[in-house]
User: What shape does this take?
Amino acid sequence: MAASRPPTRSRIPGSGLAKGLAVTLRTMTRRHGTEQYPDTLPELPPRTRGVIGLFEENCTVCMLCARECPDWCIYIDSHKETVPPAAPGGRERSRNVLDRFAIDFSLCMYCGICIEVCPFDALFWSPEFEYAETDIHELTHERDKLREWMWTVPAPPALDPGAEEPKEIAAARKSAEKLAEAAQAEAAEAEAARTDTARTDPEEGDA
Assistant: This one.
C-alpha cells in the first residue's frame, strides 16, 4: 500500500515576488539610520573598548600587566632611584622609576586583562578608536600618547543609592574630617588665647 502524501498547497504565481516587493516598499518608506561618519561621530556605549589609557602617576612598575598579557604587547622599561630617608636617622629606600610604557595595538586583542590585574589603577579603557595608521609599526604607542588617551576616559557610573561607600573614599573622608576638626580646635585655642590676653591686659585689648 503506497504511503499517502500530505496535500500540497497551491501557490499563486508571483506571490514570492510580491512579498519581496512589499518588504522593499516598507523599507523605502522608513527613515534611514545611516550616520555620515566622520562628519557625524557615533554615540558609543560607556564601556566601549577603544584604546588603553595610562595614568602613569599610579604606575609602580610592578610589571604585572606585562606578565599577564597573553599577547606580550606591553613593553616596560624602568630604573631604580635612591630615595633619601623621610626622617633623620632613617634608612634610604629605592624605588622604580618608569622610563618607557608602550603598547603595540597591532598585537593587542583588547581582552582587558592588563586593566583588571593592575593593582594600582594605572590603566583604563578609553572609547577612542580613531588611531588607524598606514604603517603597522606606528601602532606601537608610547606613554605620552597613552597619557593623552587617559583624559578621554569617561567618569565611572554613579553608585546605587543603597550601595556601600568605597573604602578609599571613606578613608579619604575620615582623614579630611580629622584635619578639619584639628584646624577648628587650633582656631578655637587661638581665639581663647587672644581672649585671655585681652582680659589680662586691657590696654593691649583696646589697641
Notes: Residues 167-200 form the longest helix (34 residues). The radius of gyration is 33 Å.
